[in-house]
Amino acid sequence: MRNQLLFIITLLNFSLMFGQTTVSGVVTTNKNVPISGANVYLEGTYDGASTAEDGSFSFETTESGTQTLVISILSYEPHYEVGDVTYFSNLKIQLQESINTLTGVTLTAGTFEAGDNSKVSVLKPLDIVTTAGAAGDFVAALQTLPGTTTVNEDGRLFVRGGEAGETQVFIDGLRVFQPFNATANNIPTRGRFSPFLFKGITFSTGGYSAEYGQALSSILLLNTTDVPDQDKTDISMMSVGGGLGHTKIWGDESLSINTSYINLAPYEALIPSDQGVEWNSPYESIAGEAVFRSRRDKSMFKLYAGFNHAELDIAQEDINFEDYVRFGLTNNNLYFNSSYKYYFDNDWSIHTGGAVSWDTNAIGVQENTVDAKETATHLKFKARKIFSSRFNLNLGSEFFTVDYDETFTSPTDGSFQNDFSDRLWAGFAEADIFLSNQFAMKLGTRVEHSSLLDSFEIMPRVSLAYKPGDKGQFSLAYGDFYQNPLTEVVKFAPSLGSEKTSHYILNYQYVGDGKTFRAEAYYKDYDNLIKYDTEMPQFNSNFSNTGSGYATGLDVFWRDNKSIGQLDYWVSYSYLYTERDYRNFSARATPNFAPKHNLSVVTKYFVTKLRSQVGMSYSYGSGRPYDNPNTAVFMAEKTRSFNNLSFNWAYLIDQQKILYFSVNNVLGFKNINNYQYANTAGVDGVFERRAITPAADRFFFVGFFWTISSDGKSNQLDNL
Questions:
Q1: Cβ atoms < 10 Å from Cβ of 484
Q2: Using one digit for the tens of pLDDT, what is the confidence trace for 471-521?
Q3: H or E segment and range at residue 654
Q4: What CA–CA distance (Å, rounded) separates 601 from 145?
Q5: Strands 66-72 and 325-343
């Protein structure tokens, strides 16, 4: 019996020995560097091993048939081998590095971001509106960033040699058709939006995503807050008006409302303008905004609405008239924006929405009147698929409509009407490809068709990024951009073609230890620019798309909020060289809005003992070109340099009450924006001129800001 048992055990041992399969191989990186400590196992079994120092592994299994071999280790993508287990011998396996969304490479060329959800932000959420001299207007604060130009008589964004009309503004991905308040000539405007409603800002100075179009120079993306943190009320009492804001939360729904009233009459009575301006009725406006939000586990719905009514009556000096020239304006603007996001279980998400805008202007110039109305809409659908940590796809379509009508009435010449309608369709597709934690690319294209221009344009976009170390990286970007002619032109010449520019950008960025450094070189090639043969676009002008130009330069940004306790500062410098042959230019030249050098220094210091935040900002712009008809060379002379030192002081009366004071151009620099020359020469053959200057050298502001919130701690310091 004992011999029989030994015989059976021997047979079983032989059968087990001959039924086992050895699984073996070597695991390395894609650069053939051995990986030790990787887990190697057959899926659904206990059979496996770990790789040795040389990356080798070996283990035996009794499994047979088709199996799945899994190789995994932290920081690398899992690898799978599927096949008959007898094939898993002497394998040579290379693992791909996994993409780390926190420390991996990002695509930053041409883009400044501010927001809680931004992985690499050079600015904190709404941080820029604490800038001295901005007076709560974040568009004015953006002018302290590199790539922008100081054009203080305008107030809009001029970016890298582009006009203000070359920048577009979007709220939650949807176009804002009239983002700035209406104003008079040489009186700076402000953005229509309250900074309280936005969680983040993306300011692209070039090379932006294929998702956006109709902007030759840049885009400004504003994202409203998804979920407010608490119920609160904000009260503002200012030397130029007042404001009231309130946020209410009901479970997954919330509503934020802001209203404001601005009236410059008391200020003008106390500190009147004395430089070529007489206010018959100073600027007065009433505005309101509201955001409703509804959030679910997989979706977010937002409804934004904004209304603005503004009016002014001003008389301005003009070299060609003995008396001041009267200009009156009444503007009404209504804007709605609705967006919806839904996230599916299969890593698909959709983002759809629409925006509609109504804008009317009643203008009086001397005895003439202009009544203008614009109705515009934007419908958008976007889908996003996350195939893996290495590949994301965005694609979508959008549709724009614009209907414009204008009536000009003169007591002597009667009435003239100008109008146009456009229907523009666009489609876009863009892929984010992460080859490793060090290298990524964005490839995209955009197509557009305009019914008014009867044109079809294709716009390729590409961005590359390489991260050689933990804190620094390089980026490259290229893109073609088209934009329809502006209203001032297309209302007279609807048959013109689109204007075009191509962007080439090289960027380096370092972020770490509370410090940020950016340096960006760029080149912009303009083509098909609009030209005409009269002083201003008018019904009898001869229009063409024969204009061209270029802009090249270097932008540098440095920020440090750690080296000196309680001190936060940034320095921006821009070098710009640009020339254009467009509009009514007689030769290619640098436009008046494009000084060669721009410098901004912004500081913010919190004095704990005084419960105060003190801020100062200094802006410098080299002389701006202008044309002197008394000389032979076109646009050959320059104004004196622009200088502006501004100061602000915020004192916390208590945690939720702030007393705020600011003064713009505290040293009273006598800045000159341009010169206006007489239309005809005098008896001595010389064209007389006058300097175009700000309406006042300084602007003073005093405000009291009170927040009432459930936590008893929130205040408006970050919005001042």
A1: 23
A2: 888 999 999 999 999 999 999 988 899 999 999 999 998 888 888 899 999
A3: strand 642-654
A4: 9
A5: unpaired
